[in-house]
C-alpha cells in the first residue's frame, strides 16, 4: 500500500492523505464555527507508540530497553535481556495507523509512549536520554500527519529538575502533556517531592496522563501475570488516584489536567465509600468530598461495557470522559468513538472533551467515511 502525505491548506496546517483503496481526508470550511467543525469528529486520546528501532547499548543500565526487528512487520521490545512484548508496524508506521483509524472511525490519535518505556527505574541520565528519543519519535510521526496526530510525551520523572526542564522542551514541541506511571518506581503520586513537576505542568498548561505501571498486588494474584492488564491495572489506577486525592493535589493545583486511564480503574466504584469515610473524618488533605474532587480528573472510555461507561458518566460527569482505545495493543477497544457514543448521552465525548483535556482545539483533518455507528443513548 502506498501513501502520499502533503499539506494542502498551509494556513490551517491540515494534511491530505490519499491511498489506494483507503481513505481521503476532508477539510472544514473556514466559515464554520469551531464547535460545528468538531461535530462527529472522533479523537482517540489513549494510543501508544514504540520506535521502529531502539538500539541496545551496553554502556547504559542493564534495564535499558531496545527494539529488535524480526521478520516481516514484526519486532520485539527487549528489556533486561528478555522479550517484554512482541509488536508490529502499527507501533510506528503512520500509514498503517491512518488506515486503522479509518476502520475504527477515528479522526485523530493522541500518541504517547508504550508505558513500559517510561522507565521510571532507569538512572536519570539514561531516562532523560530515552525520553528525548521517544519525544522525537512522536514529534516525527505528528509531522507526517499533523491533522491526525497530537502528542503526549515523557520526562525523567525520577529526577524532578530534569523533568521540569523536559517539560519546557515538550511545550516547545507543541505537545499536550506527559504520560507518567501510577507510581514513580515506588514513589506515590501524592508525594510532595513530585509537586514541583505538577506546578510546572500547570504553569505550562500541560496535562498529565496517568497509566498503570508495575502494579501492586501481583503476588496476591498468584502466578498469573496474564491478569495484570485486565484485573490488576484498574486496582493500581485506583491506588494512584487515592494518593492524588488524599494529598490534596486537585485542590493545590486546580488548573492541572490529570487524565486517569482505563476509566479511572476502580476509583469510580469506591468514591461513595470514600465519601462516607470523609464524612467521618478520613480526609487527608481534602477539604471537599472525594466524589467532588474526582470530577476535576479526566477519564478515558476504555471500559468495554456500555453499562460500566454509563456508570462512570454518572459518577464523574460525562464532560470529564474522553474517547480512548489503547491502540495498537491486543487489549484495545475497537471503534472507540462508536462505543462511547452508544453508552453516553453527550456527543461532546467524541472531541469536545478531548480538546478540554488537551488544553486547546486542534484543526483535525477528518478521515472520510468515519461515521459513528448508532445513536447516542437517550
The N- and C-terminal alpha carbons lie at a distance of: 41 Å
Mean pLDDT: 89
Contiguous low-pLDDT stretches (5 residues minimum) are: 1-32, 370-378
Inertia-based shape: globular
Which properties best describe this structure?
alpha/beta; single chain; 8-stranded parallel β-sheet; disordered C terminus; globular; 13 helices; 378 residues; 3-stranded antiparallel β-sheet; 35% helix
What this model shows, in words?
The longest helix has 21 residues. With 378 residues, the chain is α/β, with parallel strands linked by helices. An eight-stranded parallel sheet has the order 4-8-9-10-13-14-15-16, sandwiched between helices. The protein has a three-stranded antiparallel sheet with strand order 5-6-7, with no helix packed on it.
Summarize the structure in short.
With 378 residues, this protein is of the alpha/beta class. The chain is 35% helix and 20% strand.
Summarize the helices and strands and which ones pair or pack.
Layout: E1 3-9, E2 14-19, E3 25-26, H1 34-38, E4 43-49, E5 66-69, E6 74-79, E7 82-88, H2 94-104, E8 108-113, H3 124-144, E9 149-153, H4 160-173, E10 177-181, E11 183-184, E12 187-188, H5 195-204, E13 207-211, H6 218-221, H7 228-246, H8 249-252, E14 258-260, H9 267-279, H10 290-293, E15 298-300, H11 306-316, E16 321-322, H12 336-343, H13 352-358, E17 366-367
Parallel strand pairs: 4-8, 8-9, 9-10, 10-13, 13-14, 14-15, 15-16
Antiparallel strand pairs: 1-2, 3-17, 5-6, 6-7, 11-12
Helix pairs in contact: 3-4, 4-5, 11-12
Amino acid at each position: 500500500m502506498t501513501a502520499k502525505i502533503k499539506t494542502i491548506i498551509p494556513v490551517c496546517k491540515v494534511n491530505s492523505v490519499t491511498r489506494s483503496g483507503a481513505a481521503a481526508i476532508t477539510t472544514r470550511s473556514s466559515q464554520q464555527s469551531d464547535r460545528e467543525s468538531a461535530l462527529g469528529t472522533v479523537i482517540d486520546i489513549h494510543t501508544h507508540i514504540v520506535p521502529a528501532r531502539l538500539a541496545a547499548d551496553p554502556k547504559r543500565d542493564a534495564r535499558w530497553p531496545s527494539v529488535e526487528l524480526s521478520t516481516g512487520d514484526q519486532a520485539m521490545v527487549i528489556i533486561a535481556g528478555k522479550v517484554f512484548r512482541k509488536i508490529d508496524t502499527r507501533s510506528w508506521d503512520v500509514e498503517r495507523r491512518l488506515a486503522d483509524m479509518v476502520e475504527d472511525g477515528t479522526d485523530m490519535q493522541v500518541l504517547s509512549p508504550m508505558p513500559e518505556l517510561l522507565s521510571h527505574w532507569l538512572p536519570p541520565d539514561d531516562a532523560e536520554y530515552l525520553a528525548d528519543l521517544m519525544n522525537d519519535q512522536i514529534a516525527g510521526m505528528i509531522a507526517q500527519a499533523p491533522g491526525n496526530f497530537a502528542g503526549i510525551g515523557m520526562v525523567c520523572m525520577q529526577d524532578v529538575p530534569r523533568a521540569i526542564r523536559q517539560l519546557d522542551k515538550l511545550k516547545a514541541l507543541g505537545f499536550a502533556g506527559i504520560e507518567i506511571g501510577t507510581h514513580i518506581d515506588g514513589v506515590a503520586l501524592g508525594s510532595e517531592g513530585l509537586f514541583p513537576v505538577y506546578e510546572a505542568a500547570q504553569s505550562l498548561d500541560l496535562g498529565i496522563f496517568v497509566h498503570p505501571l508495575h502494579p501492586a498486588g501481583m503476588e496476591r494474584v498468584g502466578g498469573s501475570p496474564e491478569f495484570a492488564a485486565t484485573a490488576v491495572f484498574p486496582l493500581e489506577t485506583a491506588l494512584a488516584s487515592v494518593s492524588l486525592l488524599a494529598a490534596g493535589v486537585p485542590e493545590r493545583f486546580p488548573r492541572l489536567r490529570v487524565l486517569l486511564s482505563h476509566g479511572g480503574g476502580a476509583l469510580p466504584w469506591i468514591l461513595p465509600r470514600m465519601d462516607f469515610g470523609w464524612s467521618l473524618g478520613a480526609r487527608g488533605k481534602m477539604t471537599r468530598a472525594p466524589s467532588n474532587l474526582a470530577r476535576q480528573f479526566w477519564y478515558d472510555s476504555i471500559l468495554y461495557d456500555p453499562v460500566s461507561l454509563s456508570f462512570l458518566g454518572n459518577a464523574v460527569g460525562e464532560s470529564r470522559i474522553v474517547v480512548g482505545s489503547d491502540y495498537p495493543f491486543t487489549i484495545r477497544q475497537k471503534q472507540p468513538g462508536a462505543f462511547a457514543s452508544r453508552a453516553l448521552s453527550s456527543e461532546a465525548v467524541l472531541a469536545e472533551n478531548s480538546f478540554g483535556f488537551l488544553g486547546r482545539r486542534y484543526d483535525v483533518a477528518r478521515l472520510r467515511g468515519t461515521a459513528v455507528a448508532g445513536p447516542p443513548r437517550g
